[in-house]
């Protein structure tokens, strides 16, 4: 099994700080001051001026550009099972082609919808790490060819497996609470290694999308794929088109945040254990740092981001600004007690410092300045919890997201 966390391997790792007293002094870039040094005083000021500036900062310095819609996208229904999950769900397996014909890049989408409703339902959408066939033991799920290709690249056992990450995907619980689930393998878009861009969409769609591979990143490619999944979901009669929630864990939590920042059609944004480069404040010297992550996973970001390794305080933005780009939509940030590498307190502070934008829309944030106790969620339109346990996404996390959706999206 391959780890989905961003722990650095294969590199001489510098000393990692886990002492709050040694985090250092830092000052966050102002969120509500425009490039022309004027104060943002209203939601209109944010929407029409400052939001565009903040989004551009992340495009220029971190994740790269975000192409527009794919005019050549088309879909083929591969398989429908009307009695999935013990008859509770309908499953659809849809191939989303990203270019003309059927020889180019594609996303294989697995969609579960409750079987006992005639009304469109809200849907959680999230990329997965090991192929659709690994989220369930369901024999009807097609084996991911892109994942098998990745195993061969890694010189690992390429025999097909099922359900390896089933515990991360409580499909039955989601269905029973009236939600659908849409997921796809992130390697359909770009394989997660330094040379993945060579065979991923950053190369295969470069001419079509009018963007050079170096002008965006792996996280950008994965996030763009989430928007293409949303394009399809908005055409599916079983899906409530305005109630699609984007969620991601670890590096895919970073991806969900970037997708939500660029695509306002997502009804809500959820970051699970996204850490450095996600919800955690970059300027905090705690756990994984900008220097560590850009050395270990340079392909996740554009090359400009590496230039801040020696002095993170020169970075013109920080991650509270990324979280603020979700406003005024509901935002959930989650951490885990044993996941010090991801800096849980830094994730909490990221969410806390995004509140000032939500206030412009008269939306309430966390409602506290204090880190909550484990397993005690806090917040309103912005929510946060730190779950007891490790870097993972578990049923406890999903149950909070379901409650979040029930109150703010449904």
Automatic annotation (TrEMBL):
SUPFAM superfamilies: alpha/beta-Hydrolases. The keyword Ribosomal protein does not apply. It comes from the Bacteria. Coiled coil: none annotated. Keywords: Hydrolase, Serine esterase, Signal. InterPro entries: AB_hydrolase_fold (IPR029058), GCE-like_dom (IPR054579). This is 4-O-methyl-glucuronoyl methylesterase-like domain-containing protein.
């Amino acid at each position: 099994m391959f780890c989905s966390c961003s722990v650095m391997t294969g590199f001489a790792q510098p000393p990692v700080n886990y002492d709050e007293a040694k985090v250092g002094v830092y000052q966050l870039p102002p969120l509500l001051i425009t490039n022309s040094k004027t104060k943002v005083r209203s939601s209109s000021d944010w929407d029409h001026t400052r939001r565009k500036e903040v989004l551009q900062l992340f495009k220029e310095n971190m994740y790269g550009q975000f192409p527009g819609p794919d005019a050549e996208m088309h879909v083929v229904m591969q398989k429908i099972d009307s009695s999935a999950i013990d008859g509770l769900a309908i499953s659809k397996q849809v191939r989303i082609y990203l270019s003309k014909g059927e020889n180019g890049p594609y996303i294989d989408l697995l969609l579960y919808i409750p079987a006992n409703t005639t009304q469109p339902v809200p849907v959680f959408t999230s990329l997965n790490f090991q192929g659709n066939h690994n989220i369930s033991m369901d024999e009807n799920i097609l084996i991911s060819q892109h994942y098998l290709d990745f195993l061969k690249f890694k010189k690992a056992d390429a025999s097909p497996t099922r359900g390896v990450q089933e515990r991360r995907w409580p499909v039955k619980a989601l269905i029973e609470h009236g939600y659908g689930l849409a997921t796809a393998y992130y390697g359909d878009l770009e394989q997660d290694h330094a040379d993945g861009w060579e065979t991923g969409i950053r190369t295969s769609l470069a001419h079509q999308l009018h963007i050079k591979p170096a002008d965006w990143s792996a996280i950008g490619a994965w996030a763009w794929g989430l928007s293409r999944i949303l394009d399809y979901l908005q055409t599916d009669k079983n899906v409530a088109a305005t109630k699609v929630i984007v969620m991601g864990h670890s590096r895919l939590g970073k991806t969900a945040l970037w997708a939500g920042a660029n695509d306002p059609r997502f009804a809500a944004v959820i970051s699970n254990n996204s850490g450095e480069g996600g919800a955690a404040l970059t300027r905090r010297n705690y756990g994984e740092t900008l220097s560590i992550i850009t050395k270990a996973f340079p392909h996740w970001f554009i090359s400009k981001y590496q230039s801040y390794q020696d002095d993170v305080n020169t970075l013109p933005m920080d991650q509270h600004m990324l979280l603020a780009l979700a406003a005024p939509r509901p935002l959930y940030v989650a951490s885990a007690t044993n996941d010090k590498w991801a800096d849980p307190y830094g994730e909490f502070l990221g969410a806390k410092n995004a509140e000032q934008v939500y206030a412009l829309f008269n939306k309430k944030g966390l409602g506290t300045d204090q880190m909550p106790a484990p397993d005690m969620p806090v917040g309103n339109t912005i929510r946060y919890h730190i779950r007891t346990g490790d870097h993972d996404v578990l049923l406890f996390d999903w149950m909070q997201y379901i409650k979040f959706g029930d109150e703010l999206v449904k």
